[in-house]
Design the sequence.
């Protein structure tokens, strides 16, 4: 699978727009578009542990990433591409080939995305939904603005990824949630996080939440 290192963490079900300008990644997109229309057009987005998105030096990557499925591609007059992608499946990188193509090619293994302890995951859903609604209301009150939440999914994995996208701006923390073994583990971590954030809101007068400012309208 073609790998695309980024300074962000893609989560399953979340939209990711991209502007492609580096020649190696233009070639990646071109290779995807050359595939038959009924072939899966996807590449792996992997967060950078150390290094930069651009430049000749290969960055150090996290081991777990998420496939980005190409939904729309527009080639611009200067050769750049404007893409809309959506996260689909988590994977772990087994090995990386940096020689055969201008961009990285990874041998990957897909990760299961189950609930884990199903009973616990289902029980956590209304608790986390309630905490997210309370947190959003408190944050809106503190910042004197309106924050609209989308309809919150009842499916544990979908909810866990939405919370991670909406409330966790820190890349390292979001990467930990992506790597969580199952939805129950992820929701437990988010429940504790939301409780901490709510406690903090009672002690500060101004607050910023970049994640909620960019909360996704829906999960796919």
Sequence:
């Amino acid at each position: 699978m073609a790998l695309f290192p980024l300074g962000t963490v893609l989560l399953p079900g979340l939209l990711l727009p991209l502007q492609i300008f580096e020649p190696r990644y233009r070639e990646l997109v071109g290779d995807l578009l050359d595939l038959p229309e009924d072939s899966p057009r996807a590449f792996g987005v992997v967060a950078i542990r150390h290094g930069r998105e651009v430049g000749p030096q290969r960055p150090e990557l996290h081991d777990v990433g998420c496939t980005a499925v190409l939904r729309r591609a527009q080639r611009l007059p200067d050769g750049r591409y404007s893409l809309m992608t959506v996260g689909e499946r988590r994977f772990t990188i087994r090995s990386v080939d940096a020689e055969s193509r201008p961009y990285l090619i990874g041998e990957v293994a897909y990760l299961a995305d189950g609930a884990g302890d199903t009973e616990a995951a289902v029980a956590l859903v209304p608790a986390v939904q309630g905490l997210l609604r309370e947190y959003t209301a408190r944050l809106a009150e503190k910042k004197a603005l309106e924050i609209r939440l989308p309809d919150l999914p009842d499916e544990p994995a979908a909810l866990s990824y939405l919370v991670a996208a909406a409330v966790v701006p820190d890349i390292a923390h979001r990467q930990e949630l992506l790597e969580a073994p199952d939805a129950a583990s992820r929701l437990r971590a988010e429940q504790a996080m939301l409780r901490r954030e709510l406690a903090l809101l009672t002690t500060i007068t101004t607050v910023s939440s970049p994640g909620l400012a960019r909360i996704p309208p829906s999960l796919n």
